Amino acid sequence: MQTISASEARAAAGVEPGFQKPFLPPTAYVAAGLWLAILVGLGLYLSCLQGEGVPQGLSPGERTFTLEQDAKRTEFGWHAVATVRDDAGKSRRVQVSFDDCERFLARDKVVSYALFSEFEPDREMRYLQQGVCARARLTRPDRCERTGLTGTMLSVRAWCMDRIEARDGKGSALLAAVLLGDRLRLEEGGLYDDMKAVGMAHMVAVSGAHLSVVSAFVMMVLKRIGMPKRAVVCVIMGFFAAYALFTGMSIPVLRAALMSSVLIGAVWGGRRGSPLAALSVCVCLLLAANPYNAFSLSFLLSVGSTLGIILFTGLFETWLGKALGGRFPTVCNTVALTMAANLVIFPVVASVFARLPLLSPVANLIAAPVFSVLLIGGLAALALCAAAPPLGSLALAVCAGAADLFCSIMHALAQVPYASLFSSWSAGASTAVSVALMALIWRVWPNPRAKTVRRALCAAAAALLVFLLVAPHMAGDEIVMLDVGQGDAFLIRSQGRTLLVDTGNQETMLSQALARHGANRLDALLVSHHDDDHYGSLPVLKSALAGGKVYVARETFTTEDRNNDLLLEAAKQTVGADDVRGLSFGDVLQVGRFTCTVVWPHAFCDKGGNADSLCLRVEYDGDGDGSCDFTALFTGDAEADQISAMVEEGTVGDIDVLKEGHHGSRAGMTPELASALRPEVVLISVGADNDYGHPAPETVETLEAAGAQVFRTDENGDVSCRFRANTLEVRAMR
């Protein structure tokens, strides 16, 4: 297949090579103004709607729903966004959920008895910004017969899904996502986590990139047969519509099809001067068609990355070309594209995803040719499956094999140390930095000499290297309670060594917390037990745990329980099966000057649940004289019965720092136990306004009555306990 470089594409679009600054058309200011006006106006309107509950007209009863997206499966059943007519005939968008049944696809019509309810207060605004007004619980939904053109395309898409799903492995899941927009199996084997870690999440979502690759191939074929240019444009736009229908006609797909149509029309239909003007027209059309796009994260990412590529790729590519003396043009092109796109969307990547993928240019360089082959080859293989099944099956197997190889490469990259860095940038700060940097580049439009570019790149690389290698050794000896919401996550670090105890289940909160403390590299993770709020964020640690270990209770491997299996599977996907290790009573982990000894359990009595939490006695020897200066106790979700047993055994006594068991639950502490432990500092990790009533007021009162100073993440945020030979200093984030 013929490929076109970014510089050739820009030349075809009328953008001069080198340092000519792109022209900002009036439509760009119109689009920006419209976007801002909708954000403010619609935001004020939605704030008035908040708290009003289920709209009138959505009474319980049998209704027909049209799904706007493929149904997604979770541990609580199936979920999707759908449209439904209320009692007055007005179309409403709702979040539907239903129990296990056949899978429904985007544009399927479903008939079911429905019971409508409002969203939780902390989630309501997020749904309102998507135009979703209520939640609908469906009872025994039935799919309507697929008829007409839409029904035919749905049946074809379902048939293609069956062909791909007949094959196991990550490669099959990747093909389904790339070819059909089917993301159901992306989480299998940690595929999506690998893609996010190396900055390739965009590859597994049908977008303008998919349409551009396929349209380039179709365009080449049509031009070869001599079709006039304007006719080619019409055919390509018709193809976009068909491909959008084929991949589910979800809102992101329709948005990508419209943007690609306008851009292709501008470039190839006679208006060769301004892809930026075409992008501005797209933004105006999409906002006019659906004002809720103004709040859409995917819309922001799509427009922002496209804007960055149009404005800055030529400049960055020229800089890199100078630095490399004109050699390796493909490398310069790929890195420049990545830099330009990420410059604009940096605020989203830094504040929403809380990760900065350093290996994104490398991953994109590898993915560029593979992506085209998988997309074109996969579609051809599916067509061949219909015409000549044996040959089609063979071709699909070849494509799946190539996709498997690509997934293995991405998995290897995701496990490279520092493949991605954690970020704690706020949306405001990251936006200010991004806008200031773009304004500076736009104002100066620098044309440095090759030597200057090389020196700047070397200085940036040296600064990053110093930060990554030196920062861990500057942290000192400390125990840090990380604010991860309703879950546990604690850092123990000393002399450049770092142990994380539990992860919580909020990936973004964990990433931001680790970034606040510069913990981009972990030597090991200890998971106290199999509850999701203690290991649910494991996948985000792939790069940070590269070469490290995951420790669990030894009986987790031998106790038959689904929760144990899920914990072990998550751990193996993160560090590999060989680096998942078991710990038993009496085992010791050394973390610099901290000696961590397992003091519970002797054996499982709760199938790996709360009562079987791995508990650690952590002793600190600050002056290296062999005697313990301070002692801490980590209890997981163990409660008073288990901790009292440790005291009676003599494995735990008077301590200085207590990680209170089970988030400060009522059963976690008694006055007698508090008197026996006599902690000076108590750390309680809880989410604000949680549904469990943690921590129990009587537990806090009991600990304070025993003379302890109680710190809790919902009120104090991160809390650092810093140790020296004779002093213990506690610092809270707020």
TrEMBL record:
Protease in keyword set: no
SUPFAM superfamilies named in the record: Metallo-hydrolase/oxidoreductase
Positions of the Metallo-beta-lactamase domain: 486-688
GO cellular component terms, A-Z: plasma membrane
Chief location bin: membrane
Keyword presence, Transport: no
Designated name of the protein: DNA internalization-related competence protein ComEC/Rec2
Keywords: Cell membrane, Membrane, Transmembrane, Transmembrane helix
Membrane topology, record value: Multi-pass membrane protein
Compartments where found: Cell membrane
SMART domains reported for this sequence: Lactamase_B
CDD domains reported in the protein's UniProt record: ComA-like_MBL-fold (cd07731)
Species, as recorded: Slackia heliotrinireducens (strain ATCC 29202 / DSM 20476 / NCTC 11029 / RHS 1) (Peptococcus heliotrinreducens)
Biological process (GO), any one: establishment of competence for transformation
Top-level taxon in the UniProt lineage: Bacteria
Membrane-crossing residue ranges in chain numbering: 28-46, 200-222, 229-246, 276-293, 299-319, 331-354, 366-387, 394-413, 425-445, 457-475
Classification via NCBIfam families: ComEC_N-term, ComEC_Rec2
